[in-house]
TrEMBL record:
Record-listed N6-(pyridoxal phosphate)lysine modification sites: 230
High-level lineage: Eukaryota, Fungi, Fungi incertae sedis, Zoopagomycota, Kickxellomycotina
SUPFAM superfamilies in the cross-refs: D-aminoacid aminotransferase-like PLP-dependent enzymes (SSF56752)
E.C. code: 2.6.1.42
Gene Ontology BP annotations: L-leucine biosynthetic process; L-valine biosynthetic process
Protein name: Branched-chain-amino-acid aminotransferase
One Pfam match: Aminotran_4
Keywords: Amino-acid biosynthesis, Aminotransferase, Branched-chain amino acid biosynthesis, Pyridoxal phosphate, Transferase
Length: 399
């Protein structure tokens, strides 16, 4: 079996030796790549104007330009180019339509109080994308070159990045299979592209706690599958179960696995439990990367930040619903929240499970609070890093 490992992190060691990132994905020296030195830029004749920032909805408004690079098995990567934003023209038999051969990433660019634009750990996103492409036999690329090319797109679109805490420009790098042939096999052609969306806060109603439905009938991922890759096929299976959960009054699903109903993920986010564990130790726990869990960049950032604080135990481990209920009844459960790029932190106030609702504490000192103290603290710390209020090696300033 090929060696596998994860994203590098200056603060955490859990990702360095994991089995769940391929060596190909981590290799920044991949010879078959597109290169920044070959990048061409075609600008629009008349730049668009954008809605006032308070009218921006997440993922609804797109910028003037996009980055793209084509690939074929015969000739490798073509030269990358930034071109005016346009619709894609694809053959109806393209593999992406029939066999879900596609993957994507989510990252953000921020404008700080000093007016400077910053990107947050985008190299980690590109390494994870290489893992995703390799998992479905799509081409990998040189991570550093991809970062440079997307950075040029961010520079060009920097006028579209709104100012203010909670505002940003969302980046969506994507790789799709484009071979116009029916047949379940590797695609002989692909397209890498990146589009940008100026956006406001992910939750337009504000930083509010949500209700999760612990689903005992549907499964998000399984051992030996692709749950550790950011593939569209890992999301479409959750659409119908989420619809059912919504009809019951819950916003997202708390995904479970196995007879013990082990907690895996929270909606489209990594899950975190803050509790006094069964040994009486104060602990922040998130499900370990066992191949069914997406190695979130925000997840890794939270682990690094909390380990650096050194105020409580930080664990990548396992917890099931029986343990969660017991901790709740015994007053040991402090907080439960999800974490991801789009929302950063999503506090949870209640979990529906087997016909009962498990209350999740928020702030015991503030009955009107929509978040627990730890979730709020982590949220503010990460956002301060992203906007440049706290200087950090995770941010790259764009000139």
């Amino acid at each position: 079996m090929a060696s596998r490992f994860l994203l590098r992190s200056p603060l955490t060691s859990s990702l360095k030796n994991s089995r769940y990132f391929s060596a190909a994905a981590y290799n920044a020296g991949n010879k078959d790549s597109f290169y920044h030195k070959d990048l061409s830029i075609e600008k629009v004749a008349t730049p668009k104007s954008y809605p006032p920032k308070d009218q921006l909805l997440f993922g609804h408004t797109f910028t003037d330009h996009m980055l793209e690079a084509k690939w074929t098995r015969e000739n490798g990567w073509e030269k990358p180019k930034i071109v005016p934003f346009h619709n894609l023209s694809l053959h109806p038999a393209s593999s992406v339509f029939h066999y879900a051969l596609e993957c994507f990433e989510g990252a953000k660019a921020y404008r700080g109080k000093d007016g400077k634009v910053r990107m947050f750990r985008f190299d980690a996103n590109m390494r994870r994308m290489n893992n995703s492409t390799a998992s479905i036999s799509l081409p990998t690329f040189d991570v550093e070159e991809a970062v440079k090319c997307v950075t040029e797109l961010v520079k060009l679109e920097s006028n579209a990045i709104p100012e203010g805490f909670g505002y940003s420009m969302y980046l969506r790098p994507t790789v799709i299979a484009t071979e116009p042939t029916l047949g379940v096999r590797e695609s002989n052609s692909a397209l890498f592209y990146t589009i940008c969306c100026p956006c406001g806060p992910y939750f337009p109603t504000g930083f509010k706690a949500v209700r999760l439905f612990a689903d005992t009938e549907h499964v998000r991922a399984w051992p030996g599958g692709t749950g550790n890759s950011k593939l569209g096929s890992n999301y479409d299976g959750g659409m119908y179960p989420t619809k059912l959960a919504n009809q019951k009054g819950y916003q997202q699903i708390l995904w479970l696995f196995g007879e013990e109903h082990k907690i895996t993920e929270a909606g489209t986010m990594n899950a975190f439990v803050y509790w006094t564990n069964e040994e009486g130790v104060l602990e922040l726990l998130t499900p370990k990367l066992d191949g069914t869990i997406l190695p979130g960049v925000t997840r890794d950032s939270i682990l690094g930040i909390c380990r650096k604080w050194g105020e409580f135990k930080v664990t990548e481990g396992s917890i099931n619903m029986k343990q969660l209920i017991k901790a709740s009844k015994e007053g040991r459960l402090r907080e439960l929240f999800g974490a991801g790029t789009a929302c950063v932190i999503s506090p949870v106030k209640e979990v529906g499970y087997l016909g009962t609702n498990i209350p999740i504490p928020l702030d015991p000192n503030d009955p009107t609070a929509e978040s627990g103290p730890l979730a709020r603290r982590i949220y503010e710390e990460i956002m301060a890093i992203q906007y440049g209020d706290i200087p950090h090696e995770w941010t790259t300033t764009i000139d």
